[in-house]
Write a structure and sequence with these properties.
Elements: H1 13-25, E1 36-41, E2 44-50, H2 60-63, E3 67-76, E4 79-88, H3 94-100, H4 104-107, E5 111-116, H5 120-127, E6 133-138, H6 144-154, E7 157-160
Parallel strand pairs: 5-6, 6-7
Antiparallel strand pairs: 1-2, 1-5, 3-4
């Protein structure tokens, strides 16, 4: 009989699936941020996706990022504040690719593990996808508050794995 040691203890399910999301993110060719997402139902992996240009189209490493600037008016303390955001519009987000390449029936009641907190657009899409939970690691401050509010309103469990350490092979420096 093998004696369990620190090295042989199994990872918990959250760590296991987030590790997979990070490894999936290594397929991304985005120079700003590698994002991976996995769809899970009942501990069964149903799909994976990462961010990148549409299939057959030059990606950001080949053609450069397509940066669009957006302006959002936020109400803080009764005063309006203008916030500028930059987004690459060449890239299809990991969550969007996950929804494109999985079936609605598989998404019903499922969990999405994603390396990064979803942006507003992805959050809206996920809110309508049939999933019941989103687990993410890195925050995305540009849309954080309104995404959390949307998930609460929809009744979707929305949680961060703050203490998670990504696999060494999948780590990258984030450019915002």
């Amino acid at each position: 009989m093998l004696k369990e040691t620190q090295e042989t203890v199994r990872k918990d399910w959250d760590t296991y699936f987030m590790d997979i999301a990070y490894m999936v993110s290594t397929r991304s060719r985005c120079p700003r941020r590698h994002v991976g997402a996995v769809l899970v139902q009942g501990k069964k992996l149903l799909g994976t996706a990462y961010n990148g240009a549409p299939m057959g189209v030059h990606d950001c490493l080949e053609a450069g990022c397509m940066i669009a600037e957006e302006i959002e008016v936020k109400l803080e303390g009764g005063k309006e504040r203008v916030v500028k955001k930059q987004r690459c519009i060449r890239t299809i987000h990991a969550e969007q690719n996950l929804l494109l390449f999985t079936d609605r029936a598989d998404r019903e009641g499922s969990i999405v593990y994603v390396t990064d907190q979803p942006c507003w657009t992805c959050a809206n899409m996920l809110a309508n996808s049939g999933i019941v939970e989103i687990v993410y690691h890195r925050s995305y401050p540009k849309d954080s508050e309104k995404v959390a509010a949307l998930m609460e309103q929809k009744g979707i469990v929305f949680r961060s794995l703050d203490q998670f350490d990504p696999p060494a092979q999948a780590q990258m420096e984030i450019t915002l």
